[in-house]
Design goal:
Number of strands: 0
Low-confidence stretches: none
Mean pLDDT: 79
Largest sheet: none
Distance between the termini: 110 Å
Structural class: mainly alpha
Shape: elongated
Length: about 100
């Protein structure tokens, strides 16, 4: 076989693969057309809509929380245990008593 025959065979194989792909797509489109949309109950649409809205809201809230800058004091107070945070008020009470 010469190069011309090899190229012709290769082109035929590619053409066959393209035709097979087209047939698969056409069958899939035909199946989609045959499906009746009314088979899905309206409650499923409502549930899917609520799920999507809830998901979008949750993602938005997470992005808001992540992007909101906290002050240095807020970060320090969050890092300290409650007993240390209450220490200044205890010192004031001790001073006023003594």
């Amino acid at each position: 076989m010469n190069e011309e025959d090899d190229m012709s065979t290769f082109a035929d194989e590619i053409s066959n693969q393209i035709d097979a792909g087209r047939q698969t797509i056409e069958r899939s489109i035909g199946e989609l057309r045959e499906m009746d949309i009314k088979k899905v109950p309206p409650a499923a649409y409502v549930a899917a809509g609520l799920f999507v809205v809830t998901g979008i809201g949750l993602v938005g809230w997470m992005m808001y929380r992540n992007r909101r800058r906290r002050t240095l004091m807020q970060r320090l107070q969050d890092a300290l245990p409650d007993t240390v945070r209450e220490l200044p008020s205890r010192v004031k009470r001790v001073r006023s008593i003594g």
